[in-house]
Amino acid sequence: MSKLKRVKHEIKCATQQVLVSRTDTEGNIVYCNPTFLEVNDFKSSEIIRQPHSIVRHPDMPQTIFRVIWSIIEQGMPIQAVIKNQTNTGEYYWTLMTIKPQKDRDNKIISYVSYGKQAPDKVIEEIEALYRVLSEIEHDIDISAALGFLESHLQEKDMTYAQYMKHLTKNREFRCLCDFIKHSIIP
C-alpha cells in the first residue's frame, strides 16, 4: 500500500519516505530507489540514463540549479528545496541533499541525491523566492536572477548553504546511519 498522499495535483510523501537517485557527472540518472520511481510514476527502464531534469518542474528557477551545480562541481555537498514534476504532471516538494561521490584519486565520479518531504513552512517561504527568481529570469536573464539571489542572501547575512540550514532547521540526514534508518525501516 502506497504511503503517498495526493492533494489536488500535489503529492505529499510520508515522513519516513526517502527518494534516492544517483547521476553520472553529466546529470544522467544511473540509479533510483523504488520510492523515487513510485513518486515520479516511472518504471526503472524509462528513467535510467535520462537527464535528472526529466523530473524538473517548470516553476523551478534555473538560478537554483546554477547554484547547486557550482557547489557540487567543487566537490561539496548541498542542500536545496526542489519542486519536481512527476511523469503524470503532478508535483511534489522535496528537501534534497546532493553529495558528490569521489574515486580514490578524489575525482568526482557521480552525484547522489536523497530527499524527503519538504515542510510546509519551508515551501511557503521558498516558493515566494522562487517565483521572484523565475520572473527575473523571464523578464531579464539568469545573471540578474543570480544577482537578486546574492543580494537576498546578503540581506540575511548568509550564504546559500546557511540559508538552507536556517530554513530547514537542519532537517537533513545527520549521518549515514540516519539515512539508512529512514531508507530501510518502514
From TrEMBL:
Residues 29-113 form the PAS fold-3 domain. Transmembrane segments: none annotated. SUPFAM superfamilies: PYP-like sensor domain (PAS domain). InterPro entries: PAS (IPR000014), PAS-like_dom_sf (IPR035965), PAS_fold_3 (IPR013655). It comes from the Bacteria. This is Methyl-accepting chemotaxis protein. It comes from uncultured Sulfurovum sp.
